[in-house]
Amino acid sequence: MIIDLNCDLGEYDVSGNIETDEAIMPFITSANIACGLHAGSPLIMERTIRMAIKHGVGIGAHPGYPDREGFGRRSLTLTDDELRASILYQIGALKAIAEASGSRLQHVKPHGTLYNEASVDHKMAMVIAKSVKETDQSLILVGLSGSQLIRAAGEIGLPFASEVFADRAYDDDGNLVSRNIPGSVFYDTELVIERVIRMINEKVIESVSGRIIPVRADTICLHGDNEMSAFFARRLSEALQAKGIGLKSMGKR
């Protein structure tokens, strides 16, 4: 059995440092790189791409709402044309830097609130999927397992990867519990590893109320924005391989 591990990276300011990203990169197989609107910058994008190339990690665009103040976690009202232009702009920027660095873009994964809203809004999901296909029809669209993003990609013939979350709580509809709710993010490493292995082997996840929800796990998301992320990335990578689960980027699976 083979699985992809992805992580959201390059999500800091120019004045920040890249130590956490550098510590995570050796243990993942795909990187979702912020494209400058919710976080990051052109220089950070290039540095993160070069790190990914060094470690053989698949490179993905991580477009979000133009909301640096709220880190892309606030809902914005955009017209379809505005959303399309924003997605094209962000993917295009990262694609250009990747190609100038001697590599290529593998996938696209929306960020934060944009991801969550498109997971349940088919119209929004279709705008995003069509924008990805306009940019490069070989790009893989990453979306929550069972979501409208996955449905939209399938409807237009765009490659997709169904995503599950290692450290996030699910509601009874199979959506992620809001970060504003206590307990929505898990920090117990062993518990998270146990949940991930169950997702892969049994193809289910347990919701906050105990409901068993079927999932398809093509790729597993690790979050890089907490102090334990590097340790967790290493532990999860080791645990999966110890269970005979191989790791390979989604573009190579």
Characterise this structure.
This protein is α/β, with parallel strands linked by helices and about 250 residues long. The chain has one domain: TIM Barrel, CATH 3.20.20. It has helices at about 20-25, 40-55, 80-100, 110-120, 120-135, 150-155, 190-200, 230-240, and strands at about 1-10, 30-35, 60, 105-110, 140-145, 160-165, 205, 210-215, 220, 245. A 7-stranded parallel beta barrel has the order 1-2-3-4-5-6-9, surrounded by 6 helices. A two-stranded antiparallel sheet has the order 7-8. The protein is built from 8 helices and 10 strands. The radius of gyration is 17 Å and the shape is globular.
Topology-level CATH name: TIM Barrel
Order of helices and strands: EHEHEHEHHEHEHEEEHE
Strand content: 15-25%
Quantity of strands, as a count: 10
| Shape label | globular
Number of domains: 1
What does the largest sheet look like?
A: 7 strands, parallel, barrel
Uncertain runs: none
Quick one: CATH superfamily?
A: Glycoside hydrolase/deacetylase
Number of helices: 8
Order of strands side by side in the largest beta sheet? 1-2-3-4-5-6-9
Rg calc = 17 Å
Q: In angstroms, what separates the terminal alpha carbons?
A: 10 Å
Instruction: Please state the average pLDDT score.
Output: 93
**Helix content range:** 25-40%
Write a compact overview of the structure shown.
With 253 residues, this protein is α/β, with parallel strands linked by helices. The protein is 40% helix and 17% strand.
